[in-house]
Design brief:
- The complex is a heterotrimer of chains A (488), B (325) and C (555).
- Chain A has helices at 2-5, 60-67, 84-102, 110-126, 133-140, 160-171, 176-189, 206-218, 236-253, 264-270, 288-293, 298-305, 352-363, 401-415, 421-424, 480-487, and strands at residues 10-24, 30-45, 49-53, 75-80, 143-146, 224-228, 256-260, 273-278, 281-287, 377-383, 388-393, 426-432, 437-442, 451-454, 457-459.
- Chain A has 16 helices and 15 strands.
- In chain A, the strands form three sheets. Chain A has an eight-stranded mixed sheet, with helices on both faces. A four-stranded antiparallel sheet of chain A has the order 10-11-13-12.
- Chain A has a domain at 352-442: Alpha-Beta Complex (Dipeptide-binding Protein, domain 1).
- The two termini of chain B are 42 Å apart.
- Chain B is built from twelve helices and two strands, in the order ααααααααααββαα.
- Chain B is 67% helix and 1% strand.
- With 325 residues, chain B is mainly α.
- With 555 residues, chain C is α/β, with parallel strands linked by helices.
- Chain C has helices at 10-14, 66-73, 100-103, 120-133, 145-148, 155-166, 168-179, 183-195, 199-212, 219-228, 232-246, 252-281, 284-314, 316-337, 343-347, 356-367, 386-403, 414-420, 438-443, 448-455, 540-551, and strands spanning 22-35, 38-51, 55-59, 82-91, 94-95, 104-108, 114-118, 138-141, 374-378, 406-411, 423-428, 431-437, 504-505, 508-511, 514-516, 525-526.
- In chain C, β14 (508-511) and β15 (514-516) form a beta hairpin.
- Classes of the chains: A alpha/beta (488), B mainly alpha (325), C alpha/beta (555).
- Chains in contact: A-B, A-C, B-C.
- Chains A and C meet through α8, α9, α10 and α12 of A and α16, α17, α18, α19 and α20 of C.
């Protein structure tokens, strides 16, 4: 990833960041985890704004908060505002460590040991999640958040003067009269007057409150602003004011932004690069122009095609996704997007539980006439760990080769149909006379990783990963093989 | 350089007084528009003024000091009297204006006795609410904000105190510390703080989730500073309401205990409950037709509790941000 | 007279223009909220028409009164503090606000000192009238599906309740038809189907027939039957056997009783509507006739009530079951209609178990439960994600295409309007400032507010340079307790003229089907009618002052 960074200064580097929220289940303790962030890696250049888009529950808000250390990260490292040479070293080491991990090397491995030997002290000293409180406070001067809801982001019992002055008072230890001078300067800058300093937040409109929030954040001259949906609660005309302010501030002060939003049009205006998130992972990361004109990931395609366009004559060819976003506490195997993906392949992560539904309907004689010969199916047992299913027959009907053959034929037929990819993920169908059942074993799925498929364009999709790309099953041949050859 | 002038600067009209003072003024105005609350407030403050006056100038109201509480009893020494010897309320009392409401046991005048009792009751009740409330609020806020193991431990401790039956504790304390009102006071403080801890913990939990607490953390504010600067002021409104209602409740509890005779009546420490009991020689005077020793202090107490509850309800309406904006 | 709309889009062009009916007509609507801080002038003289089969979009920012318009049309304004103080709303030609001003007398001594005198009897009657219209003729979908669903009831229970509320008579009829079905009914049906060669029409006819006769379970078998065979005696035999098997043999007496009772209720409501209409036109003879009819119906209902309620009290479960079964069946069909997969599972789940999109679909299903002709959608996709929003918008399009329903679509998102609507009205500060077809509006917006609004949206489909900036409208939405004088937009307007702060522009048609309220395009002034509930306190001093001012006396 260092190549993509080039000579410019990297101000923020996030590596393998994970945040798992535990789900408590009464007396049993922790029942499971909601994987709000799962292995997020990216770099942010100085003066750049990175847009983070995604739908509800994709972890974009958690990302912002974890970077600011408002939420404790479960794993991973965040490097912010460290000298250029150290940053470059850290990035190259972290990347090496990640690629070694992907190859299956453990910490015992000698190569890995070498990397960690140098990396661990650096992590301890510079990584935000591992930092002590005092070092962290020093860093807080350079990064500030702006939150979504202008009604809950300002303390209702404080007047604007106290609100704007708080970071200066606590972080910079400035004197009261100095703070006041600075406050007057800043409040003019965001388009309010001095008298507004002596008011309570509830006396302001949403847009004005958001401006106060911005004033507070920039009062200590930070280098990075994490903007968490700063305009989502505002009207369009007011949104335009705020967006203009943010752009002006950026060009005047050289701020870096992490701009989190679910409004893709706002992202297009504000961001230089965009990261698209789905269920806690970045699925695509590229420059804004390239993302909006030539996106690669199927999810991005669907997401962008869903944006309504304020032009009645515009022709939109819309990809309407089926189904709902899965719960982040129990995400699908492999690529998280595969159950909804219109171009999914057989190795995208199909697991027995995905197959049990289609299998049931395949064996249903009402829906499928040809299944009439198979009688006596008692239940379909899903063995998630063994990656297989068993069709268990009643004792009165012992299984035989005829059953096996019919099921094979049916699977063959189903796999050619629309949404039949899941049947292609079947590795072997065999008889198990002891349990009086037919065993369906599935192939091992592959997990996509964020790969650079073009210059500066990262995608996490098996379609674009030549190690895994499966020409036979992919239905989007027109696009993918070309990339496949490009990458060679 | 880009043109910065995204929009014209909006000018606010200047304000003469401090915004926090103005905020309090509007709160006051809102409170006064609620007529019932106003009545409650007036009567409650009247009671408080009476108690304070009695504490400062006892000589004008008839009771010089605690030890000489019975000094105006004819003869100076408490002697049990027959009900028929009681003076009934009269507009032109024989023994001076302090006898206006009649007399009760030992033939002492009801009016000054009630004032003295009020002084004690309100004083103790205020002490209990303030100490208990203080402890409870601090514990609740810390436990709610910190969460995790701190919260778990603090709340279990609170649960333990919650589960102690008040009456049993009070009786035990009376045995340990002697048959004085202050024993009940200790018992009540121990019983009372968990209520506040629970109340503020809930509030603190919801306040903690607000974005402004998070942005204060991003501004380098420490946990302790966050608790006391951002969370505490925002959880206090319901505490004030609880505070005002509890003042009345505790006075009532005192009277109940004394009525039941659990705090053995020391005539030198007057109490509204013991005045209401108003009996001597094992006779219930009320049944015998001598109504005033029981009814008059009873009404006095009733008015106080009703008015303090009215005031509390009014406070709740004013302080609830949902009803205000 | 309404203007003939020049409706954009292919579908509406097909409709014969002369026959387009006005489904909702709002005339000079005025809604006020009486709060402790003052009287909020939420809607001021709003007029609009919603035509048959069209989707009309209302756009505006928060506080522009778009949601209040919707709730006013549904007559769901919370009272207190809100109240419609003027105007009329015709739903299918019936003015739901007739006599509305008599229900409550408002006396406002000042902005904050307002007294109400309510006439409870009239209000109760009005609620009875409106509750029969609401849900049956006009339905609403809200912004927050989670808040509009009852958390302690399953989706199925809620939809069934909505169905039972309005369709008892038709359910009873279908049960009776099923139970009394004779061979000749089936023969007739089979004949009719066989005469129809087109397969999709056949399927529709079969669907209609099974619903009419309350045997929806055999629909699939019937379809198969007609596909596989053309021998009519065989089909009749088979179909009759299938239908016969569906008969449950329940006691029809109770169904008859229930039908009689609910039929009377419906008729009473209908008579009441006619009576109100007659009263409004002043037709004495008709008024007398409907009064008599109402009286008769009431006494009949009184008798029926006892037989019905006694039976129902003792046989509640037996009594409700056939109705509930049919309602459940219909609920499943409704959920299928709104594209919910696994409708039976969804029917038995609680709202919190569903995602936002699913909840909104269920809400739409509930709104569609009684086949309303008019649907009001108040920001139905605002709380949803963009991919889910795309799904829901498709659903709305399907509904409007298939059932020719009129939809009033309220949103703050111009892009959604561009995609969904035929006509659009732009609201600002409680007024309609511009109205026109979507194509003319997006090609050639007139009002400075509309153009400002359109230019302030960042566009996802266009490149945006770093140096480029968005056009924004300075200032904020006005406070409607003390709205700006004249044109309410003038303090934020680039083209402000002197007249703008003094007089209010009228909404005039400047092009075919395009209306604007702005002095840049027309000089017509809207006469401002002051609110009639203000009572000027009798004060000699003020009177003297007024007199002096009038005389021109200066001191």
């Amino acid at each position: 990833m260092i190549n993509e960074v080039g000579d410019e200064n990297v101000i923020l580097y996030v590596s393998g960041l994970k945040k798992y929220f535990p789900i408590y289940g009464g007396l049993a303790g922790v029942k499971g985890y909601v994987k709000a962030l799962d292995d997020v890696t990216f770099a942010l250049k100085e003066g750049e704004s990175l847009g983070v888009v995604g739908e509800t529950g994709c972890g974009k808000t958690t990302l912002g908060r974890t970077i600011l250390d408002l939420i404790e990260a479960t794993e991973g490292n965040v490097y912010f505002n460290i000298p250029r040479e150290i940053m470059r070293r850290v990035i190259s080491l972290e990347e090496k460590a990640t690629s070694l991990l992907e190859k299956g090397k453990t910490e015992e491995d000698s190569e890995m040991k070498d990397v960690l030997k140098e990396l661990n002290p650096l992590r301890k000293k510079h990584s935000i999640p591992r930092m002590g409180g005092r070092d962290l406070i020093k860093l807080r001067k350079y990064m500030q958040p702006v939150f979504q809801d202008p009604f809950s982001s300002l303390d209702p019992r404080k007047i604007v003067r106290e609100i704007i002055g708080e970071p200066m008072k606590v972080l910079l230890k400035m004197k009261t009269n100095e703070i006041l001078v600075k406050e007057k300067e800043i409040i003019e800058e965001i388009g309010l007057s001095e008298d507004h300093l002596y008011r309570f937040p509830h006396e302001f409109s949403g847009g004005q409150r958001q401006r106060i929030g911005i004033a507070r954040a920039i009062s200590i001259e930070p280098k990075l602003l994490v903007l968490d949906e700063p305009t989502s609660a505002l009207d369009v005309s007011v949104q335009a004011q705020i967006l203009n302010i943010l752009r002006d501030l950026q060009s005047r002060r050289g701020l870096s932004y992490i701009f989190i939003s679910h409004h893709l049009n706002v992202i297009r205006m504000m961001a230089d690069r965009v990261a698209v998130m789905y269920l806690g992972k970045i699925v695509e990361l590229s420059s804004t122009e390239e993302l909006f004109t030539d996106m690669l990931h199927p999810y991005t395609k669907a997401l962008l095609s869903a944006i309504p366009i304020p032009d009645p004559e515009a022709k939109i060819s819309r990809i309407v996704l089926e189904g709902e976003i899965p719960s982040p506490s129990d995400p699908p195997k492999g690529c998280h997007f595969h159950p909804r993906c219109p171009v999914a392949m057989k190795n995208c992560g199909w697991s027995p539980r995905n197959l049990s539904g289609p299998l049931t309907s395949m064996l249903d004689p009402i829906r499928n006439q040809e299944a009439k010969t198979i009688v006596g199916v008692e239940e379909i047992e899903v063995d998630e760990d063994g990656n297989k299913l068993q069709i268990i027959f009643a004792e009165s009907t012992p299984v035989n080769d005829r059953h096996l053959q019919t099921i094979r034929d049916l699977v063959e037929k189903e796999s050619l149909q629309k949404n039949g990819v899941v049947f292609k993920a079947i590795k072997e169908i065999s008889l198990n006379p002891e349990a009086n059942s037919v065993v369906i074993e599935m192939i091992q799925s592959d997990t996509p990783h964020l790969r650079e498929v073009r210059k500066g364009h990262f995608v996490s999709c098996l379609l674009y990963d030549y190690n895994y790309y499966d020409q036979e099953t992919s239905r989007e041949e027109s696009n993918a093989p070309e990339l496949y050859s490009n990458n060679q | 350089m880009v043109d910065v002038d995204a929009f014209k600067t909006e000018i606010a009209p200047p304000r003469k007084i401090h915004p926090k003072v103005e905020e309090m003024k509007t709160t006051g105005k809102l409170f006064l528009t609620n007529k019932l609350a106003l009545v409650g407030f007036t009567i409650t403050s009247f009671y408080f003024i009476l108690a304070i006056l009695d504490a400062i100038y006892p000589q004008y109201l008839g009771v010089a000091n605690d030890s000489t509480y019975l000094s105006w009893v004819p003869g100076g020494t408490p002697t049990t009297i027959q009900p028929s010897q009681l003076l009934s309320p009269s507009l032109t009392p024989a023994g001076g204006w302090m006898f206006i409401l009649g007399t009760t046991f030992y033939n002492m005048p009801i009016f000054p006795a009630m004032l003295a009792a009020l002084k004690f009751d309100l004083g103790y009740s205020l002490a209990i609410v303030m100490i208990g409330g203080g402890i409870g609020v601090v514990i609740g806020v810390i436990s709610g904000y910190m969460g995790g193991i701190v919260d778990e431990v603090m709340m279990r401790v609170t649960d333990i105190f919650f589960s102690v039956p008040f009456l049993v504790l009070a009786i035990a304390f009376l045995f340990v510390f002697g048959h004085v009102l202050s024993s009940v006071v200790y018992a009540l403080i121990i019983i009372w703080w968990p209520i506040y801890a629970r109340l503020t913990r809930g509030q603190a939990l919801s306040t903690k989730a607000m974005n402004y607490v998070e942005s204060a953390r991003a501004a380098g504010s420490s946990k302790l500073r966050n608790i006391f600067v951002h969370v505490l002021p925002n959880v206090l409104s319901p505490v004030y309401v609880q505070f005002s209602l509890d003042l009345g409740t505790i006075v009532l509890i005192f009277s109940t205990l004394d009525f039941l005779g659990i705090v053995n009546g020391n005539p030198n420490v007057p109490e509204l409950g013991s005045l209401i009991v108003a009996q001597g020689n094992g006779l219930s005077w009320l049944i015998a037709g001598y109504w005033w020793p029981a009814i008059i202090p009873g009404i006095f107490l009733l008015i106080f509790t009703i008015s303090i509850n009215l005031m509390g309800d009014g406070l709740r309406d004013v302080l609830d941000p949902k009803l205000r904006r | 007279m309404f203007l003939t709309p020049n409706l954009g889009g292919k579908r509406l062009a097909e409709i014969n223009k002369e026959n387009i009916q006005v489904r909702v007509r709002v005339d000079n609507l005025r809604t006020r909220f009486f709060t402790s801080k003052g009287i909020v002038k939420a809607i001021d003289n709003l007029s609009l028409n919603l035509l048959e089969g069209e989707t009309y979009g209302i756009v505006g920012e928060s506080g522009s009164g778009k949601s209040v318009t919707a709730t006013s049309i549904m007559d769901l304004i919370p009272d207190p503090p809100g109240r419609i103080t003027r105007g009329s709303i015709f739903i299918d030609g019936f003015n739901i606000l007739s006599g509305y001003d008599k229900h409550v007398r408002i006396i406002a001594k000042s902005e904050t000192n307002v007294k109400f005198r309510r006439r409870k009897r009239l209000i109760r009657k009005h609620n009875y009238i409106i509750s029969g219209i609401r849900g049956k003729k006009i339905a609403m979908v809200f912004q927050e599906p989670f808040l509009s669903l009852n958390p302690v009831l399953t989706i199925g229970e809620q939809i069934e309740e909505a169905i039972l509320l309005h369709s008892r008579v038709s359910i009873a009829n279908s049960i009776i038809r099923r139970e009394t079905m004779a061979r000749k009914d089936v023969e007739k049906f089979v004949e009719g189907i066989l005469a129809q060669p087109d397969i999709s029409t056949r399927k529709k006819m079969i669907n209609r027939w099974v619903n009419e006769f309350g045997v929806p379970d055999i629909e699939r078998s019937l379809n198969d039957l007609f596909e596989n065979s053309t021998d009519d005696s065989f089909i009749t035999e088979e179909a009759f056997a299938l239908a016969e098997a569906e008969k449950t043999g329940i006691n029809l007496d109770q169904i008859y009783t229930a039908r009689g009772y609910f039929d009377l209720l419906d008729r009473l409501h209908e008579t009441n509507l006619q009576l109100i209409e007659a009263e409004a036109t002043g037709n004495e003879e008709a008024v007398q006739r409907f009064r008599d009819e109402e009286h008769e119906l009431k006494s009949a209902l009184f008798k029926e009530y006892f037989s019905y309620s006694i039976q129902r009290r003792f046989l509640k479960r037996v009594y409700e079951k056939p109705f509930k079964d049919v309602a459940r069946r219909r609920a499943i069909e409704l959920l299928d209609l709104v594209n919910i997969a696994g409708s039976e599972r969804v029917l038995d789940s609680y709202p919190h178990e569903l995602s936002g999109g699913m909840q909104q679909r269920s809400m739409i299903a509930m709104a569609l439960s009684s086949n309303p002709r008019i649907l009001i959608a108040d920001e139905p996709t605002t709380s949803l994600d963009v991919t889910t929003q795309a799904q829901i918008l498709e659903l709305f399009k399907d509904i409007s295409r298939e059932s020719n329903m009129s939809i009033l679509f309220i949103t703050h998102d111009l892009a959604v309007v561009a995609e969904m609507c035929n006509r659009v009205g732009v609201m600002y500060g409680g007024n309609l400032v511009e109205e026109g077809t979507v194509s003319s509006m997006f090609k050639d917006a007139k009002h400075p507010y509309t153009t400002g609004l359109m230019n302030s949206i960042p566009r996802a489909e266009r490149r945006f340079d770093k140096s480029q900036r968005l056009e924004s409208i300075p200032g904020t939405v006005p406070n409607l307790i003390t709205p700006p004088s004249g044109c309410r937009f003038h303090p934020r307007c680039k083209f402000k003229m002197d007249i703008c702060s003094e007089k209010k522009p009228k909404l005039v048609e400047i092009e075919q089907g395009h209306k604007v309220a702005c002095f840049l395009y027309s000089d017509e002034i809207e006469e401002e009618i002051p609110d009639d509930f203000y009572v000027v306190p009798k004060n000699e001093e003020t009177e003297e002052k007024l007199f002096n001012e009038a005389e021109g006396v200066t001191q």
